[in-house]
Amino acid sequence: QAKQSGRGTFRFFTIELEREVQARIALETELRRALERQEFTLLFQPQVDLVRGELIAAESLLRWQHPVRGLIGPGAFLTVAEESGLILPIGEWVLRAACRQARAWLDANCPIRVAVNISVAQFQRSDLAVLVASILQETQLPPEYLELELTESLLLPDVPESERLIAALSKLGVKLAIDDFGTGYSSLSYLRRLPVDRLKIDRSFVSGLPDNPRDATLVRAITGLGHDLHLRVIAEGIETAEQCRFLRSCGCDEGQGFWFGRPLEAEKIHTAVQNLPPRQPIG
Ligand code: C2E
Ligand code: MG
Ligand code: MG
Ligand code: MG
């Protein structure tokens, strides 16, 4: 079809492109407004110790409560937020809201850590450590109750800058996790250099468990690697009892996924503690 109609196709693509650019601009404007009108909200997903079967943390997951379209997940707006720089004020809001929530849990006698996703743009901001320190101070959250989830892609370029930032964050006493571990461009050298606490095995390796032999091998290898480096290992995207049992048999320390609980409103995290699925024998 494209071959038949040379100029027509060109015009078609131009119109498409134009439309896309317009849609982006509209979304950017809406996101800016959403920030002002406080339409962002956080859901929290349980992270569970696989050995003790206890709730140890919750990952904060950003949502946009759109006045017309309802609750929108980050997949629909994160790219535009990042490209427009709006992720900086949004990310700051997320950090503050998550820390405030973790402090409230502490006060309610529910001492669990909160994990916060950090985007590349936030990380490239050299004052991230200063921001985190001031938010911890402001919310009175002890640093060990905050974990920052960083992706591999963010750590890979061997930039001294990012090494300094990681060191500064680690010195504050906050925890650091490598999110979606295994999906990045795999140079593992940063693991040797950086003070990371936790590897988070990506969902894509978990979904094929326990039957897919390659996934099983990879999950065992990642767990072994993490433990050899004295890191805790958590698996994301656990949906079934079988996946959970397999991960426990591999020695994986912690887990997160629909099997333990979907992302929930903060108030429901308390009840999630009581409603965790019973631990399965490793067998
Ligand atoms: P992520 O950090 O890897 O978060 C896990 C995603 O997997 C979440 O999607 C969660 O709802 C989903 N999930 C959890 N358990 C299961 C499961 O058992 N099965 C399946 N199929 N999915 C599961 P969500 O909330 O749509 O977030 C998508 C991504 O958006 C996150 O991936 C993270 O990279 C990013 N994100 C979320 N919140 C924030 C934020 O506050 N700031 C930044 N920068 N990024 C965020
Ligand atoms: Mg994450
Ligand atoms: Mg993840
Ligand atoms: Mg993921």
Features of the shown structure:
single chain; 283 residues; alpha/beta; 12 helices; binds ligand C2E; binds magnesium ion
Structure description:
The protein is an alpha/beta fold and about 280 residues long. About 45% of the residues lie in helices and about 20% in strands. It has helices spanning about 5-35, 80-85, 85-105, 120-125, 130-140, 150-155, 160-170, 190-195, 205, 215-230, 240-250, 270-275; strands at about 40-50, 55-65, 70, 115, 145-150, 175-180, 200, 230-235, 255. An 8-stranded mixed beta barrel has the order 1-2-4-5-6-7-8-9, surrounded by 4 helices. The chain starts with 5 loop residues before the first helix and ends in a 9-residue tail after the last helix. The model has no long low-confidence stretch (mean pLDDT about 90). It binds ligand C2E and magnesium ion (MG) (3 copies).
Could you write a compact summary of the structure shown?
With 283 residues, the protein is an alpha/beta fold. It has twelve helices and nine strands.
Order of adjacent strands in the largest pleated sheet: 1-2-4-5-6-7-8-9
What radius of gyration results from the CA coordinates? 21 Å
Helix and strand succession?
HEEEHHEHHEHHEHEHHEHEH
Helix content: 40-55%
Counting H and I runs of at least 4 residues, what is the number of helices? Answer: 12
Question: Could you give the topology of this structure?
Answer:
Layout: H1 6-36, E1 40-49, E2 54-66, E3 70-72, H2 78-84, H3 87-107, E4 113-117, H4 120-124, H5 128-139, E5 146-151, H6 152-155, H7 160-172, E6 175-181, H8 189-193, E7 198-201, H9 203-206, H10 213-228, E8 232-235, H11 241-250, E9 254-256, H12 269-274
Parallel strand pairs: 2-4, 4-5, 5-6, 6-7, 7-8, 8-9
Antiparallel strand pairs: 1-2, 1-9, 2-3
Helix pairs in contact: 3-5, 5-7
The chain binds ligand C2E and magnesium ion (3 copies).
